[in-house]
Design a protein that fits this description.
- With 568 residues, the chain is mainly α.
- It has helices at 10-27, 32-50, 56-61, 65-82, 86-97, 102-119, 122-140, 144-158, 167-176, 180-186, 188-206, 218-224, 230-248, 250-253, 257-272, 278-281, 286-304, 307-320, 327-346, 348-364, 373-385, 395-407, 415-444, 481-484, 536-567, and strands spanning 460-465, 473-476, 499-504, 509-511, 519-523.
- The radius of gyration is 28 Å and the shape is elongated.
């Protein structure tokens, strides 16, 4: 591909454009949609200078419509659920269960807000529980800021548990092909543990601000916040339950999540009002969807300019300095803290999108000899809970400030509160998350190393060999054989991409999971076998391959000499 002279300076130009765009997003000098649109336009202009102007269908192809349709449909579903009065009724039920005691209200309402945020958008949760929380605090004659601030922080934390709980997870799940059930397995257990810890830490810090002996009139509060339409709540609840079930079964049907959320959204609209569709479009945050679309184009354009690969090479150099046996835990630790601190001050969504593309680049060129999926979970956890670190970390923080200013103008939530309370809490949660992921990836699911020191990819099965002089060997199997019994053919590309299957293993080497013949994996950059023990048959096979390669080389030399003679 012929490129212009400008291509030699494309990396510094792309890096400058990236920094300027992020600075404008964080500063909010203009709306972020204008910023990402202008950044995308400039990036496409530079691509045109380098090579040629991309066609419109190429630019459209840069947009991940699966992510956009997932967000679009869930906005409609949540709006239809909110129109039934469910969220206000739910908050009042929590107050009644707490018997009007503020300590119980504080813990139950904040933790349950985090749980709801795992299945509904955290912005929506914060927006809907805010008025009820402020009204409840006014009746108890306590400062509403501590409770509403805690609810906002825990809503952001709870969103890390599922695929649809927080926009960064939507991006990570769609780009890296991670299913709804995978988030429940890897992130949800930690989030369940973090929510009460976060509530306890916040209570310890704000307990002196919310002392009250006043008893709230629960009957009046319940009377003022009833379910507005029980029939519609039943239908929407069933539809939402079906969506969750379909997302949970994604490993079985292997379909994109957006299919089920879009169908569910349309069904909920038909139930709500089958004569008018325009009212549902008013519930969609079109600026958020436009921001996503232009952000995808912007990051993809930077990737075409080579910036994403360059950043991936920098990360590779940093991780490569760590010894192999501790490289994966160290990489996860660095990714978790960089994602957490970066999302707190750079806004989690554009930051996560950029780092996700870097991970994709690393997956396509895995020179680190470590699997990349643990890094994806570190990114997901750090990017989601990192939103509590500052006012710019999450859109839910901005919404909470707006709701607080509207319903409590004399004493609203301020930006400094997120730094005072959210950032110290973030450091505590990141420390716990680091320990959790170390135990998960180094103790519970350890990545097995071959005898020559190289690390193999998931899943690892112990292979038994009947060959003389061989013991149990660690052999990478390309698929969970106990379930699929499916082995790749010789020459097929396996994960990681630097490994390729070159031949069926000599008789006797079988997988413990299903006793099927295992396959030999030869690294393109190494001449040794992964298990470091070569039987006589394996040595003969390797010598045969070398002999064939030597003959091919000799034939190539002879052909070249013949061509030169003909030319002469």
């Amino acid at each position: 591909v012929q490129m212009g002279a400008f291509a030699a300076e494309r990396i510094p130009v792309a890096a400058t454009l990236f920094v300027v765009t992020f600075a404008l997003i964080v500063s909010e000098v203009v709306h972020r949609c204008y910023v990402t649109f202008a950044g995308s336009l400039v990036a496409l202009f530079f691509l045109s200078i380098m090579h040629e102007a991309p066609h419109m269908h190429v630019v459209i192809g840069m947009i991940d419509f699966g992510t956009l349709m997932l967000l679009f449909s869930m906005m409609i579903v949540v709006h239809n659920l909110a129109s039934t009065g469910f969220f206000e009724w739910f908050a009042v039920r929590v107050a009644i269960i707490s018997d009007g005691k503020f300590v119980r209200i504080f813990f139950l309402l904040s933790i349950l807000t985090g749980v709801l945020s795992a299945f509904l958008d955290n912005v929506t949760c914060v927006m809907l529980v805010g008025p009820v929380t402020i009204n409840l605090c006014k009746q108890l004659e306590v400062d509403p800021v501590p409770l509403y601030l805690t609810e906002t922080l825990l809503a952001t934390i709870g969103g890390a548990a599922t695929l649809i709980g927080d926009p960064p997870n939507v991006v990570i799940g769609n780009k890296l092909q991670i299913g709804f059930g995978d988030f429940l397995v890897y992130n949800a257990p930690l989030v369940v543990f973090l929510l009460p810890i976060a509530a306890a830490v916040m209570w310890y810090r704000v307990r002196h601000l919310v002392q009250t002996d006043k008893v709230v009139d629960l009957k009046t509060l319940a009377k003022d916040n009833p379910i507005l339409d029980q029939r519609e709540l039943l239908f929407v609840g069933v539809i939402l339950g079906c969506i969750m079930l379909a997302l949970f079964l994604s490993p079985i049907h292997k379909q994109e999540a957006a299919w089920f959320t879009v169908v569910g959204a349309m069904c909920s609209c038909v139930v709500h009002n089958h004569h008018n569709f325009r009212q549902f479009l008013d519930a969609v945050e079109w600026d958020t969807l436009f921001f996503f679309a232009t952000l995808f184009v912007f990051v993809e354009s930077l990737g075409e300019m080579g910036l994403i690969r360059e950043l991936g090479d920098v990360l590779t150099d940093i991780f490569a300095e760590v010894p192999l046996d501790s490289r994966l835990p160290t990489a996860c630790f660095i990714m978790l803290w960089v994602a957490g601190i970066g999302s707190a001050f750079l806004e989690s969504l554009p930051f996560t999108t950029t780092v996700t593309y870097i991970l994709i680049s690393l997956m396509n060129n895995n020179t680190l000899e470590i699997p990349m999926m643990p890094l994806a979970w570190a990114l997901s956890l750090g990017a989601c809970i990192g939103g509590i670190g500052s006012i710019m970390g999450s859109s839910a923080n901005l919404v909470a400030m707006s709701i607080s200013e509207r319903y409590s103008p004399k004493n609203p939530i301020q930006g400094k509160h997120f730094l005072m309370y959210g950032f110290p809490l973030l450091c505590i949660l990141l420390t716990i998350g680091s320990l959790y992921q170390y135990v998960l990836f180094a103790v519970i699911e350890p990545y097995t190393y071959a005898e020559d020191g190289r690390q193999t990819d998931f899943p690892i099965f112990q292979a038994q060999s009947g060959l003389p002089g061989c013991t149990d060997l660690a052999v990478p199997i390309p698929a969970p054989c106990a379930e699929q019994r499916d082995f790749a053919a010789p020459g097929a590309v396996t994960s990681p991409p630097t490994a390729r299957l070159v031949a069926a293993e000599p008789p006797g080497l079988r997988c413990c999971g299903c006793s099927q013949p295992a396959l030999r994996v030869l690294k393109e950059t190494h001449r040794e076998y992964p298990w470091g023990v070569a039987s006589e048959q394996a040595v003969a096979l390797q010598a045969s391959e070398q002999e064939v390669a030597l003959q091919a080389s000799e034939q190539a030399v002879a052909l070249q000499a013949s061509e030169q003679e003909v030319a002469l």
